[in-house]
Amino acid sequence: MFNLSGKIAVITGASQGIGEVVAEKLSEAGAHVVCIARSTEKIKKLVEKISNNGLKASYISCDISKGKDFTDAITNIYSEFQSLDILINNAGVTRDALLMRMNEEQWDTVLQTNLKGAFHGMKAAIRPMMKKKSGRIINITSIVGLTGNAGQANYAASKSGLIGMSKSIAKEVATRGITVNCIAPGWIETKMTENLPEKSRDELLKRIPQARTGKPEDIAYTVLFLASDEANYITGQTITVDGGRVIN
User: Fold this and answer.
1) What is the DSSP annotation of 164-232?
2) Given 59, 155, 221, 233, which residue is catalytic?
3) Any domain includes 150
């Protein structure tokens, strides 16, 4: 079950946190993972770690906010492997500020990476997937895209936009054997969340029915399911992985 042997999987933002663990779990399931991130040093170490375990991985240094660079990376991956089965749009940034204090650069930076980057990746990946009449696109969004969050108007807009874009593209490619889904993490223990003040952590935990934070593995296993053949009748959906936060 959930066997990805022979599959080529591309993961953006793979140098740390959720992306790193997703790359590891997909490789353990048999996929050749192509890790994309801006930090060459970090993804090189990840690929070495995966390869030393007898699994398959390679890397490309790329800033996905630069559309041509990301498109070229996807094109080169397909040219090398003659296949592209799974695309995980995981890379994301934050530039938090209340709207009255948010400048245009903060807005543009977040939308350019979180939303437009995913647009370029999906557009480049869909053509080879359509040729094969098979493919999995999984976009990592956030519960903030569903609920909103003060001080994160730009981040919420990017993640909400990603959900809407995914639903639209899912409809466009559904008859071609391609599924497009989103995963909306709640509070996951990563470097992005580890510096929260203790008081803020306590308040956030009170709003999670399971009264605990999630781990990157919780997201990675959901990715693994959606990337598998067993999930071939699921498309256009957003799965929240949040310990019940959005129902509280």
Assistant:
1) HHHHHHHHHHGGGTEEEEEEEE-SB-STTTTT--HHHHHHHHHT-TT-S-B-HHHHHHHHHHHHSGGGT
2) 155
3) yes
Flag whether 120 is in a domain: yes
CATH code of the domain in which 31 resides = 3.40.50.720
What integer pLDDT is reported at residue 192 of this predicted model? 62
Domain of residue 113, residue span: 8-247
Q: Which two tokens stand for residue 111?
A: 């939308």
Give the HSE-up count for residue 232: Cα atoms under 13 Å, Cβ half-sphere. 10
155 is catalytic: yes
* CA dihedral of residues 21, 6, 38, 53 (deg, nearest 10): 50
Residues 105-139: tens digit of each pLDDT = 999 999 999 999 999 999 999 999 999 999 999 99
Is 1 domain-assigned? no
Domain count, the chain: 1
pTM listed for this prediction:
0.95
Tell whether 2 is covered by a domain.
no
Residues in the chain predicted with pLDDT less than 50, given as ranges, are none
How many other CB atoms are found less than 10 A from the CB of residue 212?
11
Give the Cα separation of 34 and 148 in Å (integer): 32
> For position 243, what pLDDT does the model report?
97
